[in-house]
Amino acid sequence: MPAELLDGTKTANEILGKIRSQVAVRVAGGGSKPTLATVLVGADPASITYTRMKRKRCESVGMRSLKVELPAETTTEQLLAEIEKLGNDPGVHGILLQHPCPPHIDERAAFEAIPTAKDVDGVTLGSFADMWFGLGGFDSCTPGGIMRLLRAYDLPLSGKRAVVIGRSAILGKPMAGLLLAADATVTICHSRTPDVAAAVREADVVVAAVGRAEFVKGDWIKPGAVVADAGYNAGNVGDVEHAAAAERAAWITPVPGGVGPMTIATLLEQTLVAAERDA
Amino acid sequence: MPAELLDGTKTANEILGKIRSQVAVRVAGGGSKPTLATVLVGADPASITYTRMKRKRCESVGMRSLKVELPAETTTEQLLAEIEKLGNDPGVHGILLQHPCPPHIDERAAFEAIPTAKDVDGVTLGSFADMWFGLGGFDSCTPGGIMRLLRAYDLPLSGKRAVVIGRSAILGKPMAGLLLAADATVTICHSRTPDVAAAVREADVVVAAVGRAEFVKGDWIKPGAVVADAGYNAGNVGDVEHAAAAERAAWITPVPGGVGPMTIATLLEQTLVAAERDA
Asked: Single GO cellular component annotation (chains A, B) (predicted)?
């Protein structure tokens, strides 16, 4: 029996619907429109597409988006100044710095310039620690989106063995913290792990965040496991061999239509929360 | 063949010897004595012993210790004010808040009042994130001490399967980050893990930080594994069944004389670093 799909598009749309109602109530009550500033440095075509998509989705739920586009030759200092300006702007509730930035930019410094209260993309060190300690900061959006998707399908995590493949700052590492906070037994695999297959074979929950097409083979998947595929490689291919994995898993995300829509829904949900906390 | 011992006392003494020389050079050159403030709230006998031990060790290497003792009824606000005073005192290089604080204290707020540059005990959220991202902040002292001990014996970590048992804020969670930064494949087990034995059986490196006497059974240990026992329970008993584990492990820490001395050595090493960074 092939796996059931964890439908990210449908779940994200439900979340977006709720956000839309809440924004309408807020605005009808005289509140300001929740506002997300998207900051893009340079003109990478994929980054242009991503930020446009986020702004569009933002406006589709009645929120405001503020487009900040800086030339590729922007210095770290200029970028920090721009972010600080947005940080101090009471009309901006959330700040998203689209990454990757051009290589001459100190990206960590740029992220850290975002005030934690406006870090709706969950990229600062403060948000990272908050995720590990359950302190109520904002989630990194992709791991946060995966958690929301698993919860939407009532999939139990407590006591389950979860394996995260990848240890990036915005995906693998925060993902591990969120799964641990949900009481899973968490293993983090990465490029130096000699036998990823062995770890995956024991996993009740697999999160693939490698960025390599079909890196996770279908026959690695434990029968009945839950598979979240955060990969998005050329040709709409995920990090998991989808068809073969679906033969063994109980639940699996499609690519596209799985993790991707949940990432944006999480971003917008957190922007609304930031606006509400700000009153 | 029984395991060889990871001699924490000997390794810590080597570190302390180096610190002593460096402090002597610093002071001879007209530099200030590196100064560690120990803050103790209340009169818990074990905490009194620990802080006294740390101060004594501090002075034994030529550093200065500053004893701050506050009554058990101290409020969070009063404690924060005290820590901020130390944070602003240019004569204080490192601040150690002995935990646990009395239950009415907001311990997280108190930790966060310590400036990261003086967080030589590695308890702030900033230090936590730094450990996960390799950003050069201070280590939590017990995990940092374990890493120093493993390195002193040239034990390889890259590509090894490491299992951390326990997920406390100052031990299990930072330990996982440090092992990951050393390229181990890291699994975090905890009270909700149904089968800790199964995870330990696959581990090349085991760090026990449970706080339950002999929780880790000897026959769980994979032959040839490295075992670091951070437990220190009544009667000088660790979290690992020592004798039985030593029959299978290649390397194991004794209790006492293993992790404990390394914790204090790490604290003092980091206090010296804080002083040197401060110039």
From this structure: cytosol
Nearest to A126 among B125, B132, B135 (CB): B125
The superfamily CATH assigns to domain A30-115 is Leucine Dehydrogenase, chain A, domain 1 (3.40.50.10860)
The pLDDT score that the predictor gives to residue A115 is 98
Closest CA to B39 of B65, B59, B67: B67
B196: confidence class by pLDDT, cuts 50, 70, 90: very high
**Cross-sheet strand order for the sheet of A64-70:** A64-70, A35-41, A94-97
Q: Rounded mean pLDDT of B76-92?
A: 98
Per-residue pLDDT band for A66 (boundaries 50, 70, 90) equals very high
What three-state secondary structure class fits B185?
strand
From B54, B118, B173, B222, the catalytic residue: B54
For the domain B29-115, what is the CATH superfamily, name and number? Leucine Dehydrogenase, chain A, domain 1 (3.40.50.10860)
Amino acid at B158: S
Q: Which residues of B touch A129 (CB under 8 A)?
A: 125-126, 128-129
Q: Which residues of A213-252 are buried (b: 16+ CB within 10 A; e: fewer)?
A: bbbbebebbbeebbbbbbbbeeeebbbbbbebbbbbbbbb
Mean pLDDT over each residue of chain A, to the nearest integer:
97
Residue ranges of the annotated binding site of A for NADP(+) are 166-168
Per-residue confidence (pLDDT) for residue B200, from 0 to 100: 98
Q: How many residues does chain A have?
A: 279
Q: What percent of chain B has pLDDT over 70?
A: 100
Amino acid at A102: P
Rounded mean pLDDT, A22-40 = 98
Q: Name chain B contacts of A159, Cβ cutoff 8 Å.
A: 192-194
Annotated binding site of B for NADP(+): 166-168
